[in-house]
Amino acid sequence: MQKPQTARLTRQLAAIGLISLGGMTATSLWAQTSPPPKPEKIEVTGSAIKRIDAEGPAPVEIITKKDIERTGATSINELLKSLSTVDIFDQGELASNSPSGSGTANVLLRGLAETDTLVLLNGRRLPVNALYDSSGAGAAVDVNMIPLSAIERIEILKDGGSAIYGADAVAGVINFITKKSYEGIDLRAGLGRSSRSDGDEQNVGLSAGFGNYDKDRFNVLVAFDYFKRDPILRADREISRSSDFRRFGGNDGRSSFAPQGNFIDPNTGAFTGQSARPCPPELFSGGRCRYDFNTSILTSINGADRTSAMATASFKLSDTTRLFGEIIYAKTEDKFEAHPAPDIYPFNGGTGLIFGRFLQAGPRTTERESELTRIVGGAEGSVAGMDWLVTAGEGKSEVNNQDSNYLNATIFANLVNSGQIDPTSTSNPQALVDSAKVRPNRIGESKTRFIDGKVTGEVMQLAAGPLAYAVGASWWKEELTDTPDPLTQQGLVAGSIQQAPVAAARTAKAVFAEFAVPVTKNIEAQLAVRHDKYPNNSKTSPKIAFRFTPTKELLFRASYAESFRAPSLKQLFGGQEEGAVNITFNGVPDVPAFRVTGSNPNLKPETGEFINVGVVWDVTPNISVSTDLFNIKKKDNINTPDVDYIVANRPDLVTVGADSRIRVQQLLTNIADTEISGVDVDLRVRIPGTAIGNISMRNAATYYDKIKKRNTPQDPLLNYAGTYGQARWRNTFAITAEKGPWAATATVRTVSGFADEDDPSVIGAATRRVETHDEIDVVASYTGIKKMKIDVGIKNLLDMMPPYSLQNTSSNDYTQAGFAELYNNRGRFWFATLSYQFK
Questions:
Q1: Measured CA distances, 83 to 394, 665, 741, 793 (Å)
Q2: Residue 305, beta-bridge partner list
Q3: Were 803 and a residue from 59, 477, 703, 771 both cysteine, which residue would form a disulfide, CB within 3.0 to 4.6 Å?
Q4: Which residues pair with 508 in a beta bridge?
Q5: Quick one: pLDDT at residue 81?
């Protein structure tokens, strides 16, 4: 339940930003009051051309090292949650029973999926997570593998980036940039704990740099990160302690697959109200015995054990040429537990058939080991007025899932059918139980090799300034192997889904060109085009953008970009599976048939259009505001078409074989459309010289007017903005005071309320709503001790628990922990970090 004073405070702070038409990107113009006499040209994400002014035609948000420290974040995933720009759906950190997703964290932008956001490290691609769903969901970079202590800044391009970077940049680009040259040694150690004495965190970091690049002609930087977090059990929080949510006015979500064995009528499938073993009265509800899966084992926040290391080296070959190299290695080890699998068993007695759960098998356990490695080498320099860059490298993601306490479906069924094992008992001969146990192993590897080359320079001097250009070419090869256990491939592991193996590879190449055209002294145009060629598919992506500065305090910008996303390897070359279904065939209802689902080698790229229009205004030297309106149209989205749609509209996909089986080809298809529009608003204010020091404030908000989708060409576009998990707006207000060695930051993070329903077609005035949620974080820093920095803070200062969601608890698509995956139920969290520099 929200505390009234917090809700009022948050709404007031949000109103300040919204009324002011809020915000500026982190590269705010008011901070550039006195440019140096000889400014250095820099390359900012969204353009391959170096420029003096970081505020270009495209909206780019920059999060500096100091900004990162002010959040108190201990992981990349936690850091990104503090940004209003980034969408949140944190199922990987909250759920422990997802075969491919548990323990991972992906980035979402602009209301689109994680596969539509390109994640870069130092401007270069990272391999996608090695294990992801057959639908293609999760085929994205696991940002938990990126070492936070090595990050110098983060640049977020909030605009279509396919014309510069190619596929996957439909919603934008997040570029994590590490330290390039550093001398000295930094040590960091931190601890954290929730106010309920759980969820302990420990983190240690080391950065060490050697050699002065200009004097010694080299610099070597090494960084090391270690992060460990204890899990938080659902049973230890009121909102998730029981899956019987009637205490919140919700549903009784306790499972009907109870260890006592609920008898069902074999003819109707209805529960008889009787169980094979006595049911405790408190567990009997709705005419059956229940099993409360939230009271033990399951976590509401997963544990983590992560180690990462990075080394970079630069060598000055000459005054105009530099050689460089980069190695990154990250490893995570996780352990996830789930309850013994539910199943339907024959039983000697009653109706002869029960819904049950064999507890003696023990909790299903997955020990997950994930590794990320990337090696990059290259050279850059200048010649004849041109800058050049050549880079080559390889990135690899490896995941090994080792399961235990699973059962061989055939052996266990034989033991139950023969009466040797009673599935409602926990005292069966252990040797018999162990004889049915299996330890499925799933191994995945995702690998990307690449070679990039780029040349930049100036073509000529125009009346308004130089006409600058960048041209480049890329070659890369993607490889994916996903090898489930042989029993899992056959669908013979009780309690696990059938999984198909994948072994696929493809080679692609691209060329691009970009021009920065000074039309007049106040108008600059960005023109870019890129052609990508994949096997059997090619796509040209253009972009045009304008920057208009009628005065030095005012900037208008607009851009139009076309984008695309190539199908993932698993979507193209993963397995196909066959399952039973009833259809209406030739006017006859309920005809038995078989549907074939899975990959489709004939998929084509998804395409999109991105329009952004914005304004940045330096109201005074200490006040800046900006607003960006965006609109995205995406078509040919890859989806699994509905069976009824195929039968009614695609008779060519319905066949009758020689065996008289009717087969419906329900393969992944380019069939869906999306349209999204919204606005970013942001306000920055600086008040220097107050009694408590220099004050800086920022209020940033992202609002979605529509997130429209349809799953088939026949469907209407339905607006999902404001439905479950699709909050219309997020707001972040931060105020910082700095005086002498002291600094303090308070941040209010707000996620708007939404309809407690994920199907917009059924939402009406009576639909239940999830309340708006607020959290306040405070961080204080002290640098008064030479070479030392102390940070202490409290996250979720007022201990606000997330609001209850009925949709979350009533659907197997979600965590069933009682709240939407936009937040967590950790509660108040204390932390402290000590940093020390040797220089």
A1: 31, 42, 27, 18
A2: 228
A3: 771
A4: 476
A5: 84
Q: What is the pTM of this model?
A: 0.89
* Residues written for the chain: 839
SS3 642: coil
DSSP 403-464: EESEEEHHHHHHHHHTTSS-TT-S-S-HHHHHHHEE--EEEEEEEEEEEEEEEEEEEEEETT
What is the rounded CA–CA span in Å between residue 32 and residue 605?
A: 42
CA-wise closest residue to 335 among 294, 304, 298, 359: 304
Task: Compute the distance between CA of residue 129 and CA of residue 138 in angstroms, rounded to an integer.
Answer: 7
**pLDDT tens digit sequence for 146-176:** 888 778 899 999 988 888 888 788 899 999 9
R_g of the chain, CA atoms, integer Å: 28
Write the single-letter amino acid at 474. S
Say which amino acid occupies 16.
I
Phi, psi of 423 (to 5 degrees): -65, -10
Q: What does the pLDDT read at residue 339?
A: 94
For the chain, give the mean pLDDT.
Answer: 89
What are the structure tokens assigned to 614, written together? 């914005």
Q: How far apart are the C-alpha atoms of 20 and 625, rounded to whole Å?
A: 7
Residues in CB range of 349: below 8 A, 6 or more apart? 276
* Residue 41: predicted pLDDT: 62
Q: What φ, ψ does residue 800 adopt, rounded to 5°? A: -80, 125
On whether the CB atoms of residues 135 and 52 are closer than 8 A, the answer is: no
Q: What count of other Cβ atoms lies within 10 Å of the Cβ of residue 517?
A: 18
> For residue 448, what are its two tokens?
């990307």
Alpha-carbon gap, residue 358 to 257, rounded angstroms: 10
Of the listed ranges 112-121, 228-237, 644-653, 785-794, the one predicted with least confidence: 644-653
Q: Give the integer Cα–Cα distance in Å for 135 and 130.
A: 14
Q: Which residues pair with 344 in a beta bridge?
A: 355
Q: How far is CA 518 from CA 450, 469, 765, in A?
A: 33, 12, 53
Q: Are 637 and 113 in contact (CB under 8 A)?
A: no
